[in-house]
């Protein structure tokens, strides 16, 4: 009867784990010794147990094997770096070639460096240029339509603002007319109760306007105002004496 497979996972039981470790450690060291003898290989094994205890085996010496291992790592890193440098160099060359090709294509699109092109290549270049011109025209039309649309929207907004301002002006005019009518109505009601004394302000205004029209001096204007007021005072005094 064959031996059953053992599931590879951590053994939870401490005693069983310790027994398994001892058996498999001895088996691993035995296999390492057999490999070094049978195949004339330099073998080194380093084992740390779960408690931190060290177990090691080397077919020559551990220091020699570790030094050789370090040299092997350095050599492998140098080879890997050389391989990477070669790959990078190939990538750089490919990128340079692509840049040169694109630059030549750009010059040909500008109508330069056309020597050496066949008739078929010239036809293809002409076709590409025609397609580019059509794309540019289409884009230009789209930009113009968008600008026209924005202009119409701005015009509509301006018209709405003008209409709102016109309504405000009309409302202001109506309110002003209404206040003027109410003022005239109140003046008519208070007409019989107004004072019979002359209105010096109106006379002064009329005299001022007349003086300005005739080009009279300011001194003459003041003298006229003073004489007019004196005459009015005299008239008031005479009327009071007559009444007494």
TrEMBL record:
Annotated segments matching region Disordered: 189-244
Pfam families: K-box, SRF-TF
SUPFAM superfamilies assigned: SRF-like (SSF55455)
Bias type Polar residues, positions: 232-244
Single biological process term from Gene Ontology: positive regulation of transcription by RNA polymerase II
All residue ranges annotated as the K-box domain in the record: 85-175
Subcellular location: Nucleus
Keywords: DNA-binding, Nucleus, Transcription, Transcription regulation
Transmembrane segments: none
Matches recorded under InterPro entries: MADS-box/MEF2_TF, MEF2-like_N, TF_Kbox, TF_MADSbox, TF_MADSbox_sf
Domain MADS-box: 1-61
Keyword DNA-binding recorded: yes
Gene3D superfamilies in alphabetical order: Transcription factor, MADS-box (3.40.1810.10)
GO molecular function: DNA-binding transcription factor activity; protein dimerization activity; RNA polymerase II transcription regulatory region sequence-specific DNA binding
GO cellular component: nucleus
Domain of life: Eukaryota
Protein name stated in the entry: Agamous-like MADS-box protein AGL18
UniProt source species: Tripterygium wilfordii
